[in-house]
Amino acid sequence: MALLTKRILVTGGSGFLGRHVLTELKERGFRRVMAPSRSRFDLTKPDRIRTFMDEERPQIVIHLAARVGGIGANRQFPGTYFYQNLSMGIQLIEECRLRDVERFVAVGTICSYPKFPPVPFREEDFWSGYPEETNAPYGLAKKMLAVQLQAYRQEFGFDGVNLLLTNLYGPNDNFDEHTSHVIPALIRKFVHAQELGSSEVEIWGTGNATREFLFVTDAARAIVLAIEQLHTSQPVNIGTGREISIRDLALLLAQKIGYHGAIRFNINQPDGQPRRCLDVARALDLLGFRASTSLEDGLEQTVAWYRSQRMALRRTA
Q1: CA-CA distances (angstroms) from residue 307 to 102, 167, 180, 295?
Q2: Which domain holds residue 90?
Q3: Most buried by CB count within 10 Å: which residue of 15, 45, 80, 161?
Q4: Could you give phi then psi for residue 215, rounded to 5 degrees?
Q5: Candidates 138, 152, 169, 259; catalytic one
Q6: CATH number of residue 157's parent domain
Q7: Is 113 a catalytic residue?
């Protein structure tokens, strides 16, 4: 009960993952949750961080705010992604340390892993090489926050924990044509192609790369469990432990959407990291976390949400 009354700050609370984390906190009975807008709490401006922290005095911080995107966005904005993600996190962690915040939950990324680690990815291999080049600036920025948390625990006793999330998807995802990740990008392509009667859909890469996908409500549950149960700054993988090729994913989505045209893979565009699949034993051991939403069910929910949003927009147009 004492934990439920703590003042909790959620950065990025208006974002895709943030909305689901706020819902999970509410459903679990947390009573004093803050999710300020960027206009009030701009993490790229240290003075804004200090002012907010002094006024609101959060006791627990969940850091979700990030600048993210797919392969195309990472290739176009590598400097922006590196600077903004590193500066937001490094300043926030320092200000939390100075104010004796009781628990800091950092949400990292599978993109921080080396390009060619043994599969499935184990936390012990986190430092065994350089990340895949197309998203290395983003992945390394997040990786430096993991270093900061471990160093701060060692020197200052700062209680910071670090979750490495695999690729997320679900309702409220980002379906923007230029910055979306693979599942919303494919859903958008297939739904639009079906509506327009297009005979072909183009997808970047060979289709042979594999990815692991976690439904966003499962991710939110893992994050709240970390508040309650995680007591190490060593990284913890959060995922399903199952991978699927982009080719098989595209075929599955086309079937669920009802698109019957051709699918053409543009081999002149990058695949990104060849394989992604997590060893999730540590999350089960330390958090009791196991993903509960199958990929098939999660995709159906995500497609249904996207279609409902498009219908709502047509009604108001």
Answers
A1: 42, 21, 16, 18
A2: 3-172+213-242+272-293
A3: 161
A4: -65, 140
A5: 138
A6: 3.40.50.720
A7: no
